Amino acid sequence: MRAEIFSVGTELLLGEIVDTNAAYLAQQLSALGIDLYYISQIGDNLGRLVDALKRAKSRSDLTIITGGLGPTEDDLTREAIAETLGERMVVQPDLERELRDFFARRHREMPETNVKQATLIPSARAIPNPVGTAPGWWVEKDGWIVVAMPGVPSEMKRMWEHEVAPRLRDCCGGAVIYSRTLKVIGLGESTVEEMIRPLLSSSNPTLATYAKNDGIHVRLAAKAANQEEAERLIAGPEARVREILGDSIYGVNDETLESVVGQLLQKKGLTLATMESCSGGFLASLITDVPGSSAYFRGGVVAYSNDMKVAMGVDRQTIEKYGAVSAETAAAMARAIRQRTGADIGLAVTGVAGPSLLEGKPVGTAHIALDLQGRPAALYQVFGTMRAQIKRMSALNALNLLRLELIK
Amino acid sequence: MRAEIFSVGTELLLGEIVDTNAAYLAQQLSALGIDLYYISQIGDNLGRLVDALKRAKSRSDLTIITGGLGPTEDDLTREAIAETLGERMVVQPDLERELRDFFARRHREMPETNVKQATLIPSARAIPNPVGTAPGWWVEKDGWIVVAMPGVPSEMKRMWEHEVAPRLRDCCGGAVIYSRTLKVIGLGESTVEEMIRPLLSSSNPTLATYAKNDGIHVRLAAKAANQEEAERLIAGPEARVREILGDSIYGVNDETLESVVGQLLQKKGLTLATMESCSGGFLASLITDVPGSSAYFRGGVVAYSNDMKVAMGVDRQTIEKYGAVSAETAAAMARAIRQRTGADIGLAVTGVAGPSLLEGKPVGTAHIALDLQGRPAALYQVFGTMRAQIKRMSALNALNLLRLELIK
Questions:
Q1: Which of these three, B136, B171, B206, is where a domain ends?
Q2: Is the Cβ pair B41, A38 closer than 8 Å?
Q3: What residues are paired with A38 via a beta bridge?
Q4: What percent of chain B has pLDDT over 90?
Q5: Claim to verify: residue A283 and residue A323 sit in the same structural domain
Q6: Which of A2, A12, A25, A39 best tests the B interface by mutation, with the highest count of B CBs <10 A?
Q7: Are residues A268 and A382 in the same domain?
Q8: B156 and B203, same structural domain?
Q9: Residue B12: closest CA among chain A residues belongs to which residue?
Q10: The total number of structural domains that make up chain A
Q11: Angle, helices A77-85/A46-59, rounded to nearest 10 degrees
Q12: How far apart are CA B279 and CA A228, in angstroms?
């Protein structure tokens, strides 16, 4: 089955928004085992839309359109499908009632132009959209399937997940593509690639590495008749990757380093406090991104000045003797914040976020220290030169140091 | 002049990457006054590439291609252009020398397949690429211009800015489109739209509002023969928007709330410290995103527990009497952190980030307080229900409260 995607909207051609819908749908089609051959962005222009649809009818079995289902004159997806198929749009009383109800529930007047959102053509069935005013269209004619969905990403994704994907799975799904992503931290992409090189030539499942902002992702993707078989295909290679990369793997799929650390802390009944300088609050912010983190996170200090470090219990002599950016000061920060807050664990980061050298140490230098009920651990590393990257990498590596201590 | 963009790469059709190149180029073409009619993503397939190029030759004056210029068998952009024009690729000695030098400088062996990056066809001139191995192609034949650039965004953008945009401006630029974005905080999108409605019907400049994660953007875009004229066209409407929205406008174009606040603090020689609960470190992290922020930011406390607030100088009785989420506790936090750190300004946020109610107060509730050398200011608001949104909005509104006090 050959599929094609159209994203409709002049704002795409002005570069005012990036087309994330097409990338989402491309990934989804791949998981359904449907081959995608073309993606195009088209403006709100009837002639060009009809041209594109006629070409799609001649070369694709399935055409997926997002956008152009709004109520205004600019919204021309329905009109273009009707013209391509030589059919006429007719208002459907049941759809019109739903539409008027939608406005009534919000105590708003329905503009009369909106009624075009309640139309269908003979070859189209409506696809429900409980979160917006525009139902989608599922069109079948001459062996060609057209699916039209709203362009608003949240409405489109809901409609895809609840309505379109299940129907496509039934009618048209090919082999299933099932993937698992193992997330790695503490190793560079080329190192990871080198370590698992013998596995990278595998064709089913395929293995690939991606450098992401939360570490290196190793993606295993298998193609099979069904998910169970795909999972079986992945199991062996995944076990080998885990054997090779060991504790450097911190999570799978949607897991984040901060959620994994949160789970470990909760399981062990330990509480945490932080003191950070170069990461500037990013470490605390990562930790508090996890819902329910108040159960284990006592709080943190962003000690952006030496006075602040001293006020929070770091010995001024330590700073003066070794420097604010040193293993000794990091250790003192971890110990001080643990004692000051009564938490089980103190986690500290001190470093140089730039733009200039500090104490003669280069931008990107970071010392990370941990005090787990008196047991120390430490990490020293230099992270790039970009401020945002230094903040992120020093915070992530602090969390990883904690993770490694917790799983010891 | 009608332009068309192709982004080449099978990874785009698998949804593994989002096509940000096309959006960037679309914006750039718009600024050059060149009309863009089509964007397409195409896989690494010679037949489909040639089909697409033949269609582009028949319907566009300018075709811009990114991707497919690498050294491997999958990289087929050069081959597709050659086949479309019926021309033959020939290795150019000068390009080959540059290519071999590139590898020699990095002490690496050049794989022989790379030599195809040193080819041209008779209608093509090379576009220099000092940051990568693949030069671009500038092709002109039968009144059709094809520009092929690497797919790596950093290489593409450099080549565009230094080589392609200047040539296009000379040969093909139409009217200039010049835009300015005014950034607004503290008002919702529909309120902003309502306030400036009379201006929204203007056709040159056009005015539009966009809801972004740092507030509402009001974009003024003028079309004119040159930038000076476009700026003149924008000046009047911009002055009227500024009159209507007043202090709600915090910045222009690339300015951020945190950079604007940083400039104000530096100008006034004031220092800042923060204490935050529901924003969980995001406020401190925003402040420290600004290079040089250590000049005015003493540091902050993420007081995620009542004990932490008390340890930092908040009176326990205030918390017990009014609740941790209250105007009184927020004010006490601002005062305490100012006194504790000796900063001129204490800025505090306390609220409910969820997932559940706190002290019977709904998720999203936030109290913000400021103590500017003893002068208090406060803000109470309810921000959505999503954790990330509550963190972001409470932090941004805290910065905005500070900004409004500083410009008083």
A1: B171
A2: yes
A3: A4, B42
A4: 71
A5: yes
A6: A39
A7: yes
A8: no
A9: A23
A10: 3
A11: 50
A12: 42
- The predicted-structure confidence for B61-93, as pLDDT tens digits, reads as follows 999 999 999 887 888 999 999 999 999 999 999
How much is the average pLDDT of B296-318?
95
User: Residue with structure tokens 């709100």?
Assistant: A44
CA B217, B223, B227, B229 dihedral sign is negative
Q: Same domain, yes or no, for B316 and B370?
A: yes
B298 and A304 in contact by Cβ < 8 A?
yes
Task: Say what the pLDDT of residue B183 is.
Answer: 97
Does residue B402 carry a pLDDT above 90? yes
pLDDT single digits (tens) A69-83: 988 778 899 999 999
Residues of B in contact with A12 (CB under 8 A): 23, 26, 39
A299/B299 Cβ within 8 A: no
- Nearest CB to B48: which of A23, A37, A210? A37
Instruction: State whether B36 and A27 contact (CB < 8 Å).
Output: no
Pairwise CB contact (< 8 Å): A292 & B27: no
Among B252, B275, B308, where does a domain finish?
Answer: B252
ipTM exceeding 0.90? Answer: no
What strands, in cross-sheet order, belong to the sheet with B136-141? A124-127, A136-141, A144-149, A62-66, A2-8, A35-42, B35-42, B2-8, B62-66, B144-149, B136-141, B124-127
- Residue in A closest to B212 by C-alpha: A17
Residues A106 and A70 both lie in one domain: yes
Residues B89 and B162 in one domain: yes
Chain B residue with CA closest to A25: the answer is: B15
B298, A289: Cβ pair inside 8 Å? no
Say if residues A77 and A68 touch (Cβ distance below 8 Å).
Answer: yes
Residue span of the structural domain in which A181 resides: 176-252
| CATH number of the domain within which A222 lies | 3.30.70.2860
Helix (H, G, I), strand (E, B) or coil at B130: coil
Q: Express each pLDDT in B127-168 by its tens digit.
A: 999 888 889 999 999 999 999 999 989 899 999 999 999 999
How far is Cα A168 from Cα A35, in angstroms, rounded to an integer?
13
- CATH number for the domain harbouring residue A328: 3.90.950.20
Which of B39, B284, B341 comes nearest A281 by C-beta?
A: B284
Domain CATH code at residue B22: 3.40.980.10
How far is B67 from B78, CA to CA, in rounded Å?
10
Q: Are B147 and B64 in contact (CB under 8 A)?
A: yes
**Spans in chain A with pLDDT lower than 50:** none
Considering the domain architecture, whether residues B323 and B244 belong to the same structural domain is answered as no
Shortest CA gap B359–chain A (Å): 14
Residues from chain A that touch B340, judged by Cβ atoms under 8 A, are 311
pTM of the model: 0.79
Is B267 found in the same domain as B229? Answer: no
